[in-house]
Write a structure and sequence with these properties.
By secondary structure, the chain is mainly alpha-helical. It is about 60% helix and about 10% strand. The protein contains six helices and six strands; from the N terminus they run H-E-E-H-H-H-E-E-E-E-H-H.
Length: about 200
């Protein structure tokens, strides 16, 4: 199993590396750039024009290999659609610098798409011992088939996803901080997946 995970990681990394130069070229061509002369910001340490839209290469690096590796399911589509939405919102913001309040509201829509796809947090570990179950209250309904909402698990997942998205987004205030933060987080999550 560890060889399989290593192969997936290598494939995702290679895909991102292949698409990064193309994304940089397209970002410069279509004006997805950060120019400190036209958009000054006290956290920027760079002097030249820096291309934005780097999330596109990471997005392609994650999802292109997964379409060939994972079975396509409702959860996969939920994650894929929410990731596609957040990349589109990120590009929109990279181009025009949108209001943080608008982006924050859109984050809830993105998280709701993932939760509607089946992402939930059924329990959390109690720091004082045991676990806290969040899947106890369920709302069943019929709309083009039978569905159910696990109220506490889904609300907790919605808040958690929005919180994580904003935590990562806020870390981009200083040049190079967000990529380092994301790289360390990804490495830790990757190592945990080997267990």
């Amino acid at each position: 199993m560890s060889i399989y995970l290593f192969f997936i990681t290598l494939l995702a990394f290679s895909t991102s590396c292949i698409f990064t130069p193309l994304v940089i070229k397209l970002a410069k061509k279509f004006g997805f750039v950060d120019n400190p002369k036209t958009r000054p910001h006290p956290a920027h340490t760079h002097k030249g024009i820096i291309p934005r839209a780097g999330g596109v290469a990471i997005y392609l690096g994650i999802f292109l290999p997964l379409f060939f590796i994972l079975p396509i399911s409702k959860i996969f589509w939920g994650i894929f659609l929410s990731a596609s939405l957040i990349v589109a919102i990120g590009l929109w913001d990279d181009k025009r610098d949108r209001s943080p309040y608008v982006r924050f509201a859109l984050n809830f829509i993105v998280a709701a798409v993932a939760v509607a796809g089946g992402i939930g947090i059924p329990y959390i570990t109690n720091p004082f011992g045991g676990i806290i179950h969040l899947e106890t209250i369920r709302l069943n309904f019929n709309f083009i088939g039978n569905h159910s909402i696990i109220i506490l698990a889904d609300v907790f997942a919605l808040i958690w996803i929005v919180w994580c998205m904003n935590m990562v987004n806020w870390s981009k205030g200083v040049d190079g901080q967000m990529p380092g933060f994301v790289a360390i987080s990804s490495l830790v999550l990757g190592l945990l997946s080997f267990e």
